[in-house]
What we know:
Blueprint: H1 2-8, H2 11-36, H3 43-55, H4 60-90, H5 105-108, H6 110-129, H7 142-150, H8 153-180, H9 189-215
Helix pairs in contact: 2-4, 2-8, 2-9, 6-8, 8-9
Amino acid sequence: MRVAVAYKDTLVGRKVMMAVTGIVLFCFVVGHMLGNLQVFLGPAALDSYAVFLREFLHGGGLWLARTVLLASVGLHIWAATSLTLESWAARPIGYRMQRWRESTYASRTMVWSGPILASFVIYHILHFTTGSVHPDFLPGAVYHNVVSGFRVVPVSVFYIAAMLALGLHMYHGIWSMLQTLGLSHPRWNRLRFAFSTGVTLAVVLGNISIPVAVLAGIVR
């Protein structure tokens, strides 16, 4: 246990923690998107899927998943924050001139895409889980809540903007996660780039397609 705690406090340990928790969050984001895309199959499919989630393992499966996700989010935020503060402290005075060579726009914006996503998750829970900020929320009527919620244009615009932030965060996260886990090599970097880009585009476009389809009247 002492070794594990000491490893957690090292630079490598925190990067590994970010990678492992990132894998958990990555799997959730992909699974969540695939489940939500059932909105295109109609109300029966989406509502049945929601019932399955609530009743899985007699209701314990959903709470188990929430516990794992909450722990992963907390550890991910802690590791990211501590690494960022340590990086800033290592060079309190900035360069007179900066030229970005190795870093990407996605990597440089992680410091604000993370807080944006954290704010979005809180709103998303209040909107579609508890219904606290949903003016037409009906408990258990998931399809109805999705359609009526995304009919509000500012809400859909906010969701789309949040998905763009998710795309930047997710692309750099996948790229860095693979590098931290030792899957970085000149022979593999092209494949690593293709995987990071492809998965990110699939998730972002899949999630954005739902509010766009509602606003366009395709999903009613």
